[in-house]
Specification:
Number of helices of chain B: 9
Largest interface: A-B, 62 and 58 residues
CATH topology of chain B: Potassium Channel Kv1.1, Chain A
Structural class of chain B: mainly alpha
Largest sheet of chain A: 5 strands, mixed
CATH class of chain B: Alpha Beta
Shape of chain B: elongated
Helix content of chain A: 10-25%
Order of helices and strands of chain B: HEEHHEHHHHHH
Radius of gyration of chain B: 20 Å
Distance between the termini of chain B: 51 Å
Family (chain B): Belongs to the SKP1 family.
Helix content of chain B: 55-70%
Strand order of the largest sheet of chain A: 24-23-25-26-27
Largest sheet of chain B: 3 strands, mixed
Number of strands of chain A: 28
CATH superfamily of chain B: Potassium Channel Kv1.1, Chain A
Oligomer: heterodimer
Number of domains of chain A: 3
Structural class of chain A: alpha+beta
Number of strands of chain B: 3
Pathway (chain B): Protein modification; protein ubiquitination
Subunit structure (chain B): Part of a SCF (SKP1-cullin-F-box) protein ligase complex.
Protein name (chain B): SKP1-like protein
Shape of chain A: globular
Number of helices of chain A: 11
Pfam families (chain B): Skp1 (PF01466), Skp1_POZ (PF03931)
Number of domains of chain B: 1
Amino acid sequence: MRSTNSSHDHYAKNPNCAVGHFLHDRAHSRHCLLTGRLDVHISTLLLLSKPYSHLDMCTRSSHSRPSPSFSLLLGHGSSPVSSRVGVGESKVGTMASIVRLGPAQQQVYIEDVEEMFDVFMLSLNTVIGDGSIEEFILQNSFKIEFIGELATFWLTEITRDNRRVSSEPGEQQVEFELPTEVLALILSQLNMRDNIRASAVCRNWLAIAASVRRANNPPWLMFFPKYGDMYEFYDPSQRKTYHVELPQLRGSRICYAKDGWLLLFGPGTKDIFFFCPYTREMIELPKLQSAHQIVAFSAAPTCPNCLLFTVKNVTNSIISVSTCRPGETQWSTVNFECPMTFYSNTWNKIVFCNGCFLCLNVNGALGAYDPENVTWKVVLRPPGYTHFFSVHSSWRAKFMAEHDGDVFVVYTCAAVNPVIYKLNLMHRVWEEMRSLGGMTLFASFLSSHAMTDILGKMRSNVCFSKVLLYGKHCVTYSPDAGRYYPRNQLYDWEEQDPFESIWIESPKDPSIFLQR
Amino acid sequence: MVTTDEKGPLTAKKKSVIIRSCDGDEFLVSESAAVLSTSLKKILEEKEDRLIHLSDIDNKTLAMVIAYLSTHADDGLSDDLKRSFDQEFVSGKEFDVLKYLVLATDTLQVTCLCYTVAKKMADIMKNKLVEWVRREFDIQNDYTPEAEAEIRRLDAWAWDDRQLEDD
């Protein structure tokens, strides 16, 4: 700890002051469990009979909670690690982990300390074995850490000599240790890949990292019926199919899906609307004339920054971009003269990335619309552009997905294995990816998703919107293995009906959705 | 200045407290700011003394926390402004500084800041080598080489060819 030197000096100069503060603070920290660490000269422990009662009360209050747990950690200095010993029921709590390290260099007045640690005798004895607590304390400098439900406090007992040695430059090993809860809070913010690597740091981190490791739920595949109102939802993690009746969607077809919301368009009525199949919420939008092109949106319609976007050619060199926000009464359209021809058609792939809509056309060229500055430009040519007559010119179905500012495109055709590119906007190149590195791409014709932290066989694979083996497996492609599953054959995704199915974020609580 | 504070009988009486860091520096803090820390609030409820000594928070870290508390206690600032303050507050700070900050916010139970700092630390830890993490957190590797190799083998994909950083 950075402050330990100075604080120690402070106490060293005036140990009584340290005692005073210690008791002072301690007396008021019974409930709030204030103070991460106290550096106390060993003699101050003589005066600890008072805090004892607080500790006792603290213990009791923690017993009234559902899962009281205390951990008792003995050690000293910079590396309080070695063995962890679980101790059964004691007056203190249900768990104690004890570590002992290093020889002591200081005498202790045992009686007082014992009084102080009366509560912990049971735990201590387990570790100390036949030796008495006196001997133990005589032989070891020690640190005690109580982990309550809300916060941690611990007494650090490090002998003066010890600290003086350790604070010398060159030999510095000033201790820094985070309480378990804080470490758990930090590690819980990591994605699974970083979490797994964090577990290789040390044994303690492994336990904490594993306890906060989270997996993402894969999206569900929603199937649109040719006739009728019965919609199928396939959950790839459970390999289950659910049937739900949604008469609200009659006469409309799917445009796009993102953040658990569907965007649907009625070719007959020109109605365009958001629909959440899980809550059955519907959000109407102004009618869109001639919506033969795909329409995409940036975020859930409940978000303030939700923007709808569609693009089409007016002439060969003029591009027309229409946008709309939920709540507005009409679409606004801007025409751009485009020096670089960009053929837009129904099967554009659109993602929203870093504030821009990126639009991949059927040839593989990438255009970008910046809603803030109202600009349109073609930013990238198709990959493999120079090899015009290579196999790449026969690419058929393409899928594009965005994740955390990165854009991925899957090129497929019936002749060779799919190729996955990552967009490098900085250098304006497509970088071919030999592996997805733990990420999963959920590819469906109108919109695709890229997700990390998916468990099981879907990880590092591209999952397509087709289910085989009687609903037991969706078709996946593994770049690592260079093959499709479940059948080692090639697929022509262009042949699939684009409006037949789409990946949509799974419901937060499937049971509520399914009981309706 | 008229006190309109209704947070409690004690807090209504006094308007500011002195908080002393472990290196002896004292900070005068308005009580409305101090009570945003759950720990300080509880101390103030129990204690007549206006001087709070924090024996494990150094002056630099304490100054940062107090800056945060004071900003959030300012009723004149909108929530949006406070949110952007939070983001700026953690951005650009050294990892070493954040370590002590997260410890201090946990001690003082400033939940919101603790979370923000923890998230920032996690962001920095992304794509870092295990060795980097050990160094920054001052942790001794207590795995046997075999045990560590086993962990790496079990989830080999997490150690893929993507570049890991060491600084």
